[in-house]
Amino acid sequence: MRPGHPFLLALLLFLSQAAGDLGDLGFLAPTPGSSSFLGFDSSSNFGPGSGSRLGSSEAPLSQSFSNFTGSVDDRGTCQCSVSLPDTTFPADRVERLEFTAHVLSEKFEKELSKVKEYVQLISVYEKKLLNLTIRVEIMEKDTISYTELDFELIKIEVKEMEKLVIQLKESFVGSSEIVNQLEVEIRNMTLLVEKLESLDKNNVLAIRREIEALKKKLKECEASKGEGSPAAPPPPSPGSCGHGGVVNISKPSVVQLNWRGFSYKYGAWGRDYSPQHPGKGLYWVAPLNTDGRILEYYRLYNTLDDLLLYTNARENRIAYGQGSGTAVYNNNMYINWYNTRNIAKVNLTTNTVAVTKTLPNAAYNNRFSYANVAWQDIDFAVDENGLWVIYSTEASTGNMMISKLNDTTLEVLNTWYTKQYKPSASNTFMVCGVLYATRILNTRTEEIFYYYDTNTGKEGKLNIVMHKMQERVQSINYHPFDQKLFVYNDGYLLNYDLIFLQEPQ
Ligand SMILES: *[C@@H]1O[C@H](CO)[C@@H](O)[C@H](O)[C@H]1NC(C)=O
Ligand SMILES: *[C@@H]1O[C@H](CO)[C@@H](O)[C@H](O)[C@H]1NC(C)=O
Ligand SMILES: *[C@@H]1O[C@H](CO)[C@@H](O)[C@H](O)[C@H]1NC(C)=O
Ligand SMILES: *[C@@H]1O[C@H](CO)[C@@H](O)[C@H](O)[C@H]1NC(C)=O
Ligand SMILES: *[C@@H]1O[C@H](CO)[C@@H](O)[C@H](O)[C@H]1NC(C)=O
Ligand SMILES: *[C@@H]1O[C@H](CO)[C@@H](O)[C@H](O)[C@H]1NC(C)=O
């Protein structure tokens, strides 16, 4: 990739220069094609046919204007100069000329500002692409290796971006040089991804998020040209329950491998949710020790960028966590206390236990954990309404129970009894007071197959297919503001977007 953006710099320089030169009727354009892009067409403004604007009553003037010389230098810049053969001083003509020059210059400025806008937009994309490339290159040099990366997904994203650039290019009638650059870089990205694929390196999928953002920007740029596709119905506003529940789910986007590495297959991750500061929550990653049981270390990141780059992490140690049923709400982490039916609240600022409480009669230590996931008899969940815990008791015969907790005191506020046997579900999450349970279809797909609505007491079957990267979904956490699922998939951190029924039921 190029180290900087000399082309854009040169173009901007050229544009300001051109604006200044116009007064002297020295006229510069990058290529003949580009002149129409700038709002000028040398043939119509300076050619014989358009002499009328400059001197309709005086044919000689228009003829003298048609006598200009032009040359194209080796960088494709077209230089034109016009010679005025008149030796006597035609004051009135000069006056008219001045007026015309003024009109032209205004028109030029107008077009120029449009161009600058696009140039700036594109320059931003270019920087992002460059950054992306550098990061890919860094990852390329990374030595951790892993064999099951879904490069297909990246390739599809890059392809889509390429398509958008081509559309963008078409809308830049006459001057697509800048867009061409972008196109080349995106092609290069495709090549890089293919190269990486063959190298089979780890963690490259973190860039998917960047590509996503880039794609969005391109779409915006495209839309700003008035060619945007008709808008899809807006998703429900963040944190709102004005919808009819989950009806579908996006493909996963792989955020990254957990910070402890490939062997840490068990764990959880998510984003703190607090109704007071819904969009401000920090990200947490809590891989269990390799025994799949003890939660000892967890990390906090202020931003997703920090998480992606594994930078500015706060790492804390607790020695008493069990299983990956952890959830974070209002800057507190809720955990199952090791080897007990107790639950605890850990203040994330101080990493100290604020409250512990016994969850009455809760089964624990693999009595009724999830299918394929051990030590998760007690699974916390957070949704728009607050903190919940999903568990079973001997009395419930292993069927799932949902309890609403007071997040301050950990007291059980209310409990709902489902008819769904907990060990036959692979995991659960809550959205707007509705419990959703997943089960394994095969090594690559999971199904959201069951719901229980605590608002109505209704329960039933669903069949929403959920793709996954790895075999086991170790934990699922929902974030009400992002309306995303945070899934810990055998060491990989995945995000899914939930799709809701538009109409409330
Ligand atoms: C694309 O990659 C090729 C070879 O890797 C390189 O020569 C070229 O400069 C790159 N183009 C851009 C725009 O980065
Ligand atoms: C154009 O200018 C050149 C020299 O300045 C002159 O020789 C030539 O006759 C001119 N042509 C016309 C069409 O005026
Ligand atoms: C890429 O961008 C991020 C923030 O957008 C910045 O922190 C990082 O240093 C950049 N990386 C490179 C290699 O330029
Ligand atoms: C669910 O979303 C996927 C794309 O993620 C789409 O292919 C599928 O058709 C959708 N299913 C339904 C029932 O809308
Ligand atoms: C966590 O502890 C800090 C310091 O004692 C306190 O200021 C903060 O309010 C506590 N946070 C929560 C969410 O309880
Ligand atoms: C939770 O407990 C605290 C302290 O007893 C109390 O102030 C608060 O109202 C309770 N919240 C709910 C929702 O019951």
UniProtKB/TrEMBL annotation:
Which Pfam families does the annotation name? OLF (PF02191)
According to UniProt, the name of this protein is Olfactomedin-4
- Kindly state which keywords UniProt assigns to this record, in alphabetical order: Coiled coil, Secreted, Signal
State the organism named in the record. Answer: Daubentonia madagascariensis (Aye-aye)
The residue stretches assigned to a coiled coil in this entry are 179-224
Quote the PANTHER family the UniProt record gives: OLFACTOMEDIN-4, OLFACTOMEDIN-RELATED
Q: Specify the signal sequence span.
A: 1-20
Instruction: Please give the PROSITE patterns that the UniProt record associates with this protein.
Output: OLF
- Where does it primarily localize? secreted
* Annotated stretches, region: Disordered: 224-243
Q: Where is the Olfactomedin-like domain?
A: 240-502
GO cellular component terms?
extracellular region
Where's it found, cell-wise? Secreted
